[in-house]
Amino acid sequence: MDSFGELGLPPELVDALAAEGIERPTPLQRDVIPLLRRRNNALVRAGPGSGTLVAYGAPLLECIAAESTVPRAVVLAASGAAAGALATSLARLAMSTGHAVAALGSPWAAPERSDILFATAPDLLAAVRNSRLRLEDLRALVVDGAATIQRSDGLEDLETLIGFVPAAAQRVVISSPVTPEVRAFARAHARKAGYVAGSGVPPGREAGPIRGILHYRICRRNDADLVRTVSEVLEQGARHVLVFCASDDHAADVGDLLSLHGFHAGAPGDASTTVWLASRVDDAEPPVLSGIADAGSVATLSADVPVGAGELRHRHALGASAAVLVLHREVAHLKAIAAEAGYRLQPLPTPPRADAHSEFERRRSQLLRILEEEDLASEMLLLDPLFERHDPVEVAAAASRLAGRAAKNPSARRSRADGEARSAAHSAAPSDAVQLPVRAQAWVRLFVSVGSRDGIGPGELLGAAVDQAGIERAQVGRIEIQETFTRVEIRQQVAEKVVRALNGTTLGGRAVRVDYHREPARGPSRSRGGSSRRRIRPRS
After folding, report:
1. Strand locations in 121-252, DSSP E?
2. pTM higher than 0.85 for the full model?
3. In a domain, 419, yes or no
4. DSSP 350
5. Whole-angstrom Cα distance, residue 79 to residue 152?
6. 179 and 239 share a domain?
7. Is residue 418 in some structural domain?
8. Which of 34, 267, 275, 470 has fewest C-beta within 10 Å?
9. Residue ranges in the chain whose pLDDT is less than 50
10. Same domain, yes or no: 87 and 189
11. Residue 501 is part of which domain span?
12. In which element (H, E) is residue 340 found?
């Protein structure tokens, strides 16, 4: 099915999608839309970048009456910023169908009288409890980003909200990855749900052989990011750069932008231009570069993340180098389709500055290294509430100042942490108990059989430990990544749990072996606890 009309959507909705440059369904949308149009429950393994909003939004606009009295459908998002952005995108489509779309916690008129309401679970629960909203007439509940919700606030509020949702209401759970907790939630509250795997390597199955390197850059997808990346790719020696865009309209806008900055853009194969433009490709057609004689001198760049592994291979299988511009919320989707397509992800390097002598320049270099080498998706989720009140530039400036203060006075930071630990231990002890010497919790060091050559960063290992073992972020200490292996410091009381949870999982396209390091770890820099007395098993 190559069109939304063939999926059964009404003509006015098909036209509204076309007006937004969305003319052909993604693989995920082809699987999900027919399932939801039949009012089935669903568990979908997918994330932003694969077309999730249209996958559930189009059936909602078709099946929910445009009455603007009380919400008939609720979409739960991981943050207020995400809820507002999703509502804005769906509202553009809803203009053609007459539906009212709104989001709680941001400036929308009368959200309690919208047809489709976006919200976070805590905001929605508060509105229900203070009688601002009622859910008795709800016909559909969508949880968009269940694993992220679990990682940030847990699923407790979702469990409570389910009690207010009519039993007959459709339930749709979208998550990447589908953790055991998310699967259990769907099993309990979305009975007989159809499962759509989406893109990515299925859990328990190892990725195939590595076909090549795919560079990526996390950005806000603005004009400066695109122009800077095109310039850097050409400076690295490519004769031409082929830029893939989501639609013909997007390609035309990109061409105008690049021409404004002096880069002549044209059609693929035009020897007189340095930049070639192509819109979304069809997997059934030959790759764009297959008919180009000097394809080895052409770099490929996706101005938006491919919707699936097939499109990724179609765009980037040929050419001298390959790169993708990706939003932070799309990183999980990019990792999934890259593993399925057989590509190893690496951050796109940025040319170093020559004047890194002052303290500010050194700090800027450190920030740049973290931005390029580490997965910051969970940190960005944590900062989303600040982004709603302040510009991201202001938040970054405040974080930089905070880091600078900590760097100037490390002894005060350690003293404060030790004092807090002693105070907590003292208050927790019974008044008549024998007071033992206070000793911080011990750490042990684990050996993990993947390293930098596998494209692994601290963020991936931290996320794997938190998601797979179900531990707290504070229970993970220093992460030291070497070329072929990694050492990770873990609180002693959860170390065995981490070893069992991570052994046999896949990271960076490789099966992971986790064991205790030969020697116990001293506490990380933020905590000066004693070393573990546990007997450490040697690595085999």
Report:
1. 140-144, 170-175, 194-196, 212-218, 240-244
2. no
3. no
4. -
5. 9
6. no
7. no
8. 267
9. 356, 412-413, 420-440, 520-540
10. yes
11. 443-516
12. helix 331-341
